[in-house]
Design a protein that fits this description.
signal, Major pollen allergen Ole e 6-like, Pollen_allergen_ole-e-6_sf, Pollen_allergen_ole-e-6, mainly alpha
Length: 75
């Protein structure tokens, strides 16, 4: 009985880890896309690299967090 319980517990951990990795990958792709577009636009406006790095990281980090939360709500 105890072996079955441990096996079920381990399977649950594996499934949850797989779902978490999948959600993280989509959020990371969204962040990369957002950051690249933001960086190009910001530097095109004549701002410096450091300013754009901080601005885009903040803006896109917020969007990444929003995407992760939406994935958790869907699960």
């Amino acid at each position: 009985m105890a072996k079955k319980l441990v096996a079920v517990f381990l399977m649950c951990i594996v499934v949850l880890a797989a779902v978490h990795v999948n959600a993280q990958n989509s959020a990371e792709e969204e962040y990369k896309s957002c950051f690249t577009d933001c960086q190009k636009g910001c530097e095109g406006e004549g701002h410096g690299y450091t300013f754009c790095e901080m601005k885009c990281d903040s803006d896109c980090g917020t969007q990444e967090l929003k995407a992760k939360l939406e994935e958790l709500v869907k699960s």
